[in-house]
Amino acid sequence: MKEVHKVRESYKTERKAGEPSNLRLENKMKLFVVSILCAFLLVSSQNPTNHWTLQPNVLVLEVDGKPGQQPISCLEMPENAVTSDNHNQDIIWKKNGVEEAQRGNWYLVRLVESLGGGNYTCHGPDGMLLNYTEVLIQQNEAKRRRILVKNQQQDYLKCSTQNYNGEFHCSWTWDSKRVGKAAFIKAQRMSDGQNSHCSVEPSRHQWMCSSAQSNFSCSVDDSGSGISCLDWQHCPYAEERRQVQVTVFVRTHQFLLESYSKQFYLSEIVKPDKVRISKVNKTLVEWSYPSSWNTPYSYFPLTFQISQFSRQCRKCENPCTELKHSKASILSSSDVCQFKVKQKIKVVCVRAKDALCDSEWSEWTHIRLVPLSGDL
Predict the structure, then answer these.
(1) Chain centroid, CA 305 distance in Å
(2) How far apart are CA 50 and CA 105, in angstroms?
(3) Would you list the domain boundaries of the chain?
(4) 50-74+89-139, CATH topology level
């Protein structure tokens, strides 16, 4: 601003001295250039803290809550292209379908706190669509998350897998006031200096992420509250040396964007399916490994927990979790398991977990040894 003041003082002095008009015009031009430069610096200082492209025609603006503005363009102009101001002024801009007052190849997106996102389209004089940019707003990470809510484990993403084939599922819970949709999915194996390239199919339901270390495909559930992914290069018989990293970008209808990430080994999130249990006789039950579990069972052994109940419950949806049981028994086997129950036992419950790692138990499976008509 000191430079502008000097130019202004110089301009006043020259006018008083009666200098030629062409020199005064030259000084006016200098003043104009300096003013434009200062205005540019002022605008730049108010721009978002960062901006980047999520996918083609989708621009993400990272903001910290302060007022600002970000220029977007309609047409890419080569450096040697010659265009007139009239041609630029013929370009009409619309935000979410409503015509804006701004004209020309450049449009300034005005940002106020988390507002400013939207669908920006530019049109020719005849109304023909020339280009579009979807602007999403991502607030500073220090701000409170607002789109998803934490689960019982105090995490935003819950991931699990039924086996070691490389498939897994992650789910989340929307905030009741800000239900949105998945905007982008990224999955990769953690490694130093390695980044995956991700792309989305036109249907926007399938994402592919590839790198030198991994090749993932992910699809969004019909409910919109989860994804199913597969690491095509994963080998269940090899040691898992690198964690999986999943990042889910979710957005609201108000164009607010947030990202949520989770890192894990498959062994940390594995949860076997229910075991298959059957009655051999009044005192003997047997069960087998879940059909989805990896083979051979000697290489992927399971540990089983058995609970016995001497009474039944007519109103219980799941007697395994609602009835009191005696001390549970633990059994490890790499084949079909048989278990001799105690006398007067009416319900037997069985669940399984990976015997070689501290992972989650499967859901309970129960069998009634005595029909409900014989309840006490």
Answers:
(1) 36
(2) 22
(3) 50-74+89-139, 148-268, 276-368
(4) Immunoglobulin-like (2.60.40)
